[in-house]
Amino acid sequence: MEKTLLEQLLERQDRGYKDFVAKLIPTLDPARIIGVRSPSLAELARIYLRENTDGAAAFLELLPHYYYEENLLHSVFISKTAELDQALQQVETFLPYIDNWAVCDSGKPAVFATDPGAVEGRIRVWLRSPEPYTQRYALGVLMSNYLGEHFRPEHLALAAAVESDEYYVRMMVAWYFATALAKQADAALPYLETGRLAKWTHNKTIQKAVESRRISPEMKDYLKSLRTSRRSGSNP
What are the tens digits of pLDDT across the range 96-139? Predict the structure, then answer.
């Protein structure tokens, strides 16, 4: 009898790696972590996508999953979907079940690049969601797909308008703006110069930009001068 995907994940368990992952994702119950190293999980995903596409499709219907690695595989399978409408539907179905930053950031469908306008429409909807990981996912797509040739200044306004007390949402807003400083500096810099971000996000953006290898030393020095310890109406 053919082994289930879960059985194959359990066979690849590395208990030491499980402890490592548990420290990286403190919001996740350690009991829900198997401990499968990334290369091993990627190998299993490739096997299914190459040799058992029906099994991969069936797995996508099994929500909710219990284990972290099951959710990672789910995300990988979605990322390889070739049809845009199908990929968007699969993402919409999966988003309510994402409950940690690692799964949220684990992969975006490559097919999203084929119709930036249609995907941007969904991003705008996701950003208005009350669910923190749906917001984070939307910001991640905005960062990965819309800071290059498809960039428009209004995208910065979309990210700046996200209101959340959730750490993992605020961190993604900061990550987005730090990346924007590397790729679209002329448009992004005024958000810091004029104090358009909440204090915590403002300073975290500068921190991440200063840590980036894509930012020039001169820009880093200037950004450091924009750090603030007090900003009215800002997050703590």
Answer: 999 999 999 998 999 999 999 999 999 999 999 999 999 999 99
The DSSP code sequence of 87-102 is HHHHHHHHGGG--SHH
Contacts of 130 (CB under 8 A, 6+ apart): none
Q: Look at residue 145 and give its three-state secondary structure.
A: helix
Domains and CATH numbers, the chain: 1-112 (no CATH), 115-236 (1.25.10.90)
Q: What residues contact residue 234 under an 8 Å CB cut-off, 6+ apart?
A: 198, 199, 200, 202
Token output for 181: 């400083």
Closest CA to 209 of 169, 176, 167: 176
How many other CB atoms are found less than 10 A from the CB of residue 70?
A: 20
* Rounded CA separation 91/85 (Å): 10
Overall average pLDDT of the 69-90 stretch: 97
pTM, rounded to two decimals: 0.93
Amino acid at 42: A
Answer left, alpha or beta for residue 195, where phi above 0 means left and psi between -120 and 50 means alpha: left
- State the amino acid at position 166 in one-letter form: E
Note whether 138 and 106 are within 8 A (CB).
no
pLDDT tens column, 19-58:
999 999 999 999 999 999 999 999 999 999 999 999 999 9
